[in-house]
Amino acid sequence: MYQLLSGLSVIEVSSFVASPTAGLYCAQMGAEVIRVDQIGGGLDYDRYQLTEEGRSLSWENLNRAKKSVALDMRTSEGRELVQELAAKTGQLITNVPEKSFLSHAKLKEAREDIITARIMGWGDGRQAMDFTVNAASGYPLMTGPADWDPDTAPPVNQLLPAWDFICGAYTAFALLAALRHRDMTGEGSELRIPLGDVAIGTVANSGAMAEMLYRGSDRQRLGNAIWGAFGRDFMSRDGKRFMVAALTAKQWAGLVEAFDVGQQVAAIEAAHSVDFTTSDHNRFTHRDELFALFQSVADTMDYDALADRLAKAGTTFERYRTMYETANDPDLVHDNPLFGTSPHNPSGFEYPAAGPFANMPERERGAPHPAPYLGANSEEILAERLGLGSGAIGKLMDSGIVAGSDKE
């Protein structure tokens, strides 16, 4: 964990994926991120998959390096404590609806320069989740085998909640931009980050929206082929499936060399009066002939021998793995400095945990920090942030408005 944001504190009232991700990225860069949860856990506290002890591995990994305060936010006293924590701290990350006790207007009454970063569904207030905004994006209807009938083929949903993670990362960025603005001007900010806008905006930024409008139609399904370039999955003689990609002339030359198909490629070029060395377009247009050629070579070689040739030729390729294989891969995980062992996870389960993704050669990344037990820092935060004495905190705990650690 880096310390670039040391001295910054953020209150987080959130659930599921996007909002906790924003707080996680801040925490991994050294910010003090204080989660405020409903006593007993919020909507995502027992999200699948659970260990035998009932601990969520999803919650545990999205909330590393944070602190936890447990309050009964169903009560007016509990909600007032959250409002006061947000005002005293000055910045809030949340996905609680705007028309709630954590509205920006309400918090601004207590602190004029407060910054609220609120993740929403759609910009007009409608609810949304990653899988529903993905349905609106168009990608599920462009995904799948090339021979599927476009009129009857089903959509293909992605397993990774990509829009959630992009939204979380963008929220962390927007929060830091608002902090810089406040440092320069003294002004607070209300940031509303709709998940739907993140998705449709990303579609536009990728050029895909302009492409469809220019074409006047949808892009066809391509299976595992790369759109607009040469790339696809192939299978070796010993049944290993791998992906290759050639988006540059150098990558293409390396593939031709590794597969030793120079003469055959030249024959295809001559037959169509094209040059594959300088044009992504030509390689993509004639992909079916090229795919068949490269697969015919893969049919004659075991993967290890072919991978050795691909590596020596400087190509871009990778073998397909199951996620269980990935989790046990030495290069990807165990010998990767991104990962460290977090031995004090609330689940009691020890496993490699990711630290901050940025690699800063002149700084020590440090070991990943565990997630907190729910309510582990309730007394500490209420005392330090709000100046409450032990007697006042004791009364709040006795009345059920505040809870301590759920370790037991």
Properties at a glance:
three-stranded antiparallel sheet; elongated; seven-stranded mixed sheet; alpha/beta; 41% helix; 408 residues
Structure commentary:
By secondary structure, the chain is an alpha/beta fold. Helices cover 41% and strands 14% of the residues. It has helices at residues 18-28, 57-62, 76-89, 104-110, 130-137, 162-185, 195-205, 208-215, 249-259, 262-272, 280-285, 287-298, 303-312, 323-327, 330-334, 378-386, 390-398; strands at residues 9-13, 32-38, 67-71, 91-94, 115-120, 189-194, 230-235, 241-246, 316-319, 339-341, 352-354, 402-403. The strands form three sheets. A seven-stranded mixed β-sheet has the order 6-5-4-1-2-3-12, sandwiched between helices. Helix 4 (104-110) links the parallel strand 4 (91-94) and strand 5 (115-120). Helix 1 (18-28) crosses helix 6 and helix 5 runs parallel beside helix 7. The chain is elongated and about 85 Å long.
Question: Secondary-structure blueprint of this entry?
Answer:
Layout: E1 9-13, H1 18-28, E2 32-38, H2 57-62, E3 67-71, H3 76-89, E4 91-94, H4 104-110, E5 115-120, H5 130-137, H6 162-185, E6 189-194, H7 195-205, H8 208-215, E7 230-235, E8 241-246, H9 249-259, H10 262-272, H11 280-285, H12 287-298, H13 303-312, E9 316-319, H14 323-327, H15 330-334, E10 339-341, E11 352-354, H16 378-386, H17 390-398, E12 402-403
Helix pairs in contact: 1-6, 3-4, 5-7, 6-7, 9-13
pLDDT average, as an integer? 96
Sequence of secondary-structure elements: EHEHEHEHEHHEHHEEHHHHHEHHEEHHE
Q: Gyration radius, to the nearest Å?
A: 26 Å
Name the structural class: alpha/beta
How many angstroms does the end-to-end distance come to?
Answer: 27 Å
Major sheet: 7 strands, mixed
Name the beta content range. 5-15%
Helix content: 40-55%
Number of helices: 17
**In order across it, which strands form the biggest sheet?**
6-5-4-1-2-3-12
Counting DSSP E segments of at least 2 residues, the number of strands comes to 12
Unreliable residue runs = none
What spatial form do the alpha-carbon principal axes imply?
elongated
